[in-house]
From TrEMBL, chain A:
Cross-referenced PROSITE patterns: ABC_TM1
Protein name, per record: Dipeptide transporter permease DppB
Major localization class: membrane
Organism listed in the record: Candidatus Methanofastidiosum methylothiophilum
Subcellular location field: Cell membrane
Listed GO CC annotations: plasma membrane
A Pfam match: BPD_transp_1_N
TrEMBL record, chain B:
Keywords associated with the record: Cell membrane, Membrane, Transmembrane, Transmembrane helix, Transport
TM region positions: 20-39, 81-105, 112-134, 140-159, 247-269
Protein's organism: Candidatus Methanofastidiosum methylothiophilum
Domain called ABC transmembrane type-1: residue spans: 77-268
Lineage per the UniProt record: Archaea, Methanobacteriati, Methanobacteriota, Stenosarchaea group, Candidatus Methanofastidiosia
Signal sequence segment: none
UniProt GO cellular component terms: plasma membrane
GO biological process: transmembrane transport
Subcellular location, principal: membrane
Membrane topology according to the record: Multi-pass membrane protein
UniProt name for this protein: Dipeptide transporter
Family: Belongs to the binding-protein-dependent transport system permease family.
Location(s), subcellular: Cell membrane
PROSITE patterns from the UniProt entry: ABC_TM1 (PS50928)
InterPro entries: BP-dependent_transpt_permease (IPR050366), MetI-like (IPR000515), MetI-like_sf (IPR035906)
Length: 315, 282
């Protein structure tokens, strides 16, 4: 119980720090804060700029600005984008679903594929065929998602013509969406599978020398039974933790795929915002991604409690 | 028994090979980075005719600006490796200091440092670097520093747990009872004994830093005066290298990134697994 409240406190502090960073950065950076806050994609006279400065409270003292900022955060107000012409929060939310549509299936597929292949490979770590598999997975793990996307786009879309080159799908039914999402989800799944594979393999190698495994073997269970009845559950815990801890990294991988495939998700939103120096969208995206990362950690903590009750009780 | 020794040999040899493959690839790129000025056919900034396909005077053709791609690639090794090494040195030094202090002194210090580490770990690093790099003028050193200062937490965690494992070992206690200072114990007893976790972590951090640099540069946030592989990919993608099927433009820098990251991971993982050499046997 004590552990749980400590964890919750840690998440809240993490969010507090991240949100405060988001307040400090535009004001600390060189240049006019109003430019850093609005972005560079607007045309305005000096008068209306001054008016806006007052309206945004930039003439106030920093502590007051900080309070106003939190007031905005609690109302889910992340500012206004001059490039996309709309409030940042609703722009991001409308794009988010497409990113999640890419991310969630990939995470699920790769969790299954990676943990199965990784655990068998970990158990038979001295077998040469599994060593070869490990090298292949390591090579995929070393490949940035944007580069894998470039190669896949070239082979499957340009050369073979199997999939669309551009990812926009404003209209069209489920089949059309599937058609657009097949390659991106495959790439994301390949990348994440390689990651899960390496983690799971290492984890099983560590786990399999423990006494309970020796005991299970002594009972006369087959290798497969030992692996899936005993080792698997314990060995998959690090996989879960790292999935949550690296959520930001994993999400970034998806964003890069979206950029290459010109998809309608957050990746291209950030990229467009970057090209037009539309900072409010960048700040908003950073905050939303952070919230998602913290939530992922909290969710995994919750799962941990179910899978391994020892953890929530002790420590 | 002989059977076991046989297997141990086989295992040791195959492990050695993996490590050796990694080291060979890595040394090759290290050589390229150091000798870029000598082995590169041209200055990467000289402009020839643009969009030349590979031929005998330009093995990998030229890009949209007419720069020789092979020369760019060789000099790019320098940029990418310096960012990776520099960032990893910063991250490793920070991580080792924080990890050892935390694991050795325990108590309140440990609580605070680990809370900071946990919070740090939750900050999405790539999006944060994107924002900072977008606000400031893209600069090579800045990107290296940012990666370095954001990449230490995992090293700190690993170092902390290995420090905790040995801090109560009898050889440490005996040095302590002889009256040596904490500083002495940390520097000459603990540090040498956790080297085997620090070194693989250092290699993996270089890999991760280079991976991230490539991603950030791919977004066009790289230093325009220092062309890294990620930036070459960015130009190839933005200026139509992909659409016009100029594989010689976008394929080589991508493959170089993959090769170096792969070699570093191979070294890092096989060093880490050496710990489990007996376990690998079965």
């Amino acid at each position: 119980m004590k552990m749980r409240s400590k964890k919750i406190a840690r998440y809240l502090i993490a969010l507090f720090v991240i949100f405060s960073l988001n307040f400090i950065i535009p004001r600390l950076m060189p240049g006019d804060p109003i430019t850093n806050l609005l972005g560079e994609d607007y045309v305005m006279t000096e008068e209306s700029l001054q008016e806006l400065r007052e309206k945004m409270g930039l003439d106030e003292s920093l502590p007051i600005q900080y309070l106003n900022y939190w007031n905005g955060v609690f109302r889910f107000d992340f500012g206004y984008s001059y490039h996309f012409k709309g409030p940042v929060s609703s722009i991001i939310l409308s794009r988010m679903k497409w990113t999640l549509l890419l991310l969630i299936p990939s995470i699920l597929f790769s969790a299954i594929l990676g943990s199965l292949m990784g655990s068998i490979s970990g158990q038979k770590s001295s077998s040469n065929s599994y060593k070869t598999l490990t090298l292949i997975e390591l090579a995929f793990y070393s490949t940035p998602t944007f580069f894998l996307s470039l190669i896949f786009l070239y082979i499957f879309s340009f050369k073979l013509g199997l999939f669309p080159i551009k990812g926009f799908y404003y209209s069209g039914g489920i089949l059309d969406i599937l058609h657009h999402f097949f390659l991106p989800i495959s790439i994301m799944t390949i990348f994440l599978t390689s990651r899960n594979y390496m983690i799971m393999r290492g984890s099983v190698i560590q786990e399999k020398s423990k006494l309970y495994v020796v005991y299970a073997k002594a009972k006369g269970l087959s290798d497969r039974q030992v692996l899936f009845k005993h080792i698997f559950k314990n060995a998959s815990l690090p996989l879960l933790t790292l999935l949550a801890l690296d959520f930001g990294f994993i999400l970034s991988g998806a964003l890069f795929i979206e950029i290459i495939f010109s998809m309608n998700g957050m990746g291209n939103l950030i990229y467009e915002a970057l090209l037009s120096r539309d900072y409010p969208v960048l700040y908003g995206s950073f905050m939303i991604i952070s919230i998602m990362a913290v939530l992922a950690n909290a969710f995994v903590d919750f799962l941990y409690g179910i899978i391994d009750p020892r953890i929530s009780d002790s420590v | 028994m002989t059977h076991h020794i046989e297997e141990l040999k086989k295992y040791a040899i195959s492990k050695l090979n993996l490590n050796a493959i990694g080291i060979t690839i890595f040394l090759l790129f290290l050589f390229i980075a150091i000798a870029a000025g000598i082995i590169s056919p041209y200055n990467p900034w000289i402009r020839f005719e643009p969009y030349i396909p590979p031929n005998s005077s330009h093995f990998l053709g030229t890009n949209d600006m007419g720069n020789d791609i092979l020369s760019e690639l060789l000099f790019g090794a320098r940029v990418s490796l310096i960012v990776g090494f520099g960032a990893s040195i910063i991250a490793t030094v920070l991580g080792v200091i924080i990890g050892i202090v935390s694991g050795y002194y325990r108590g309140m210090m440990d609580e605070i440092l680990m809370a900071i580490t946990d919070i740090y770990l939750m900050i999405p690093r790539i999006p944060l670097i994107i924002i900072l790099a977008a606000l400031m003028r893209p600069n090579f050193w800045l990107i290296m520093l940012l990666i370095g200062f954001l990449w230490w937490p995992t090293t700190a965690r690993v170092v902390r747990s290995s420090t905790m494992q040995i801090r109560d070992a009898s050889f440490i206690l005996s040095v302590k009872s002889l009256g040596f200072s904490d500083k002495h114990i940390i520097l000459s007893e603990i540090l040498p004994n956790i080297n085997h976790v620090i070194i693989p972590k250092f290699m993996l951090t270089i890999a991760s830093a280079m991976f991230s640099e490539a991603s950030i540069s791919f977004l066009g946030l790289g230093d325009p005066t220092m062309k890294s592989w990620g930036m070459m990919l960015n130009f190839a993608f933005m200026k139509g290298g992909l659409i016009n099927e100029m594989w010689w433009w976008y394929l080589p820098p991508g493959l170089c990134i993959v090769a170096v990251v792969f070699s570093l991971m191979l070294i890092g993982f096989s060093l880490e697994e050496k710990e489990n050499i007996v376990l690998g046997l079965e």
